[in-house]
Amino acid sequence: MNKKEFFLPGTPLYFAVKQSLLAALASGEWVRGQAIPPENQLAEKFGVSIGTLRKAVDELVSEHILIRHQGRGTFVATHESDQHFFKFFRIQRRDGYKTYPTTRLLKFRRRKATREACERLQLPKDASVFHFFNLLSLNNDLVMVDEIQVPEVLFATLNEQSLGERSSTLYNFYQNNFGINIVDTREKLSVCQADSAVAGWLDIAEATPLLLIDRTAYTYQDRPVEWRQTRANTAKYEYIAKD
Amino acid sequence: MNKKEFFLPGTPLYFAVKQSLLAALASGEWVRGQAIPPENQLAEKFGVSIGTLRKAVDELVSEHILIRHQGRGTFVATHESDQHFFKFFRIQRRDGYKTYPTTRLLKFRRRKATREACERLQLPKDASVFHFFNLLSLNNDLVMVDEIQVPEVLFATLNEQSLGERSSTLYNFYQNNFGINIVDTREKLSVCQADSAVAGWLDIAEATPLLLIDRTAYTYQDRPVEWRQTRANTAKYEYIAKD
DNA sequence: TTACATTTGTTCGTATGTATA
DNA sequence: TTATACATACGAACAAATGTA
């Protein structure tokens, strides 16, 4: 039987291979930082030519889901690599200087998801979320407050202590502790004003205008796993948009 | 003699082909909306295999510089296509509704470029620019003011009347009247306050906090051709970031 | 409607080069 | 040095979309 018969008509073979690779990643068959099998083995496994497999992998590489190293292999992307981190961290000083933020956990609780949170995270009505606030500093400036909500069902063992003690970036922490790989984010930006809590944390006057970055973060296959609202003081910093 | 000898060692052949294609585009050999020669002819012209030519074209397609249509040919991208336009227009209503803006030219003059404008547009110190303001409305809401500066040397025949009467988008206008193709933009976002002029145009109170979008727009080979500062009222609208 | 030529899309297989361990 | 793995390049064959006679 022709292999194409297994798929919808009109679906290119390389696309089906790409979906199979994504499914393997989502199932945890290959995990962060590890090499996936070499191209010739994968091609044989899927019963396609090396060129077809290559086209499928090409797309995942361009989406920063896999990383190729000539002579070594193809690896599941981690959030350790600097470039990849800055893909998701877009705030830098107005003179262009980039640094890693230092983080302080301000507040942490478990609560019933609001109606809006359920929509954003595609959760049932009675779901619970963890809801927490982080204060981020750059070059000793208090720059932004992240308000973050994640579904309890995916982050069951999350608690205040481990979150406060983590040494890595938050998405790296998700990856290492919950096996959740953030591969995409979608953001909407607008202007808001500091409420009393945020103003206190950022040491600014109440009602100071702030940049509001409303982000939903997705893992493989477009599944939302985090809703984040960042309120940033852009007096000395700015948001770098892509393309 | 090996063809590779013509290029820097370590430069892949497909990359050299891509640069040749870009040079042909920059020189105006192929113009907006037109089909470039078919793959087999280009492959023969450059003395490479069809697969190598294809890889070069693939990259230009992924950068939205060329557009392929199966059965018809490969075309120089225009700003007429909706999707491409929205790639550069990122403001939409909070409910997700997208529309084209209507534009009114508020002010137009020719002046000596400021020091900052010279830096942004990579111009010599004594260069002149056209400096103009547009008011943009969406769904009959006054949403944003664009402050735009372009080098006189590239837009020599630009004048208030043609700019005010244009029916197309601004980048389409650049393309049709000056042969300038905007293929990339880089944007930095922050918060500002409405000065008296902007407040008057947008019919809001002075010092209302606005989203400031600072954009440099580039044509082929990373040459900056426009500096634009957009001040947007995000009360009912928001900025959609990519990836 | 049909048939045909043109053009890009997909898939295959092979050979050789380069980087790594 | 050697083996492995990805990178580049070549060429061929057929499929699918398009436009035209």
Automatic annotation (TrEMBL), chains A, B:
PANTHER family: MANNOSYL-D-GLYCERATE TRANSPORT/METABOLISM SYSTEM REPRESSOR MNGR-RELATED, MANNOSYL-D-GLYCERATE TRANSPORT_METABOLISM SYSTEM REPRESSOR MNGR-RELATED. This is Transcriptional regulator, GntR family. The keyword Transcription applies. GO terms for biological process: negative regulation of DNA-templated transcription. GO terms for molecular function: DNA binding; DNA-binding transcription factor activity. InterPro entries: Bact_HTH_transcr_reg (IPR050679), Chorismate_lyase_/UTRA_dom_sf (IPR028978), Tscrpt_reg_HTH_GntR (IPR000524), UTRA (IPR011663), WH-like_DNA-bd_sf (IPR036388), WH_DNA-bd_sf (IPR036390). Keywords: DNA-binding, Transcription, Transcription regulation. Residues 11-79 form the HTH gntR-type domain. It comes from Advenella mimigardefordensis (strain DSM 17166 / LMG 22922 / DPN7).
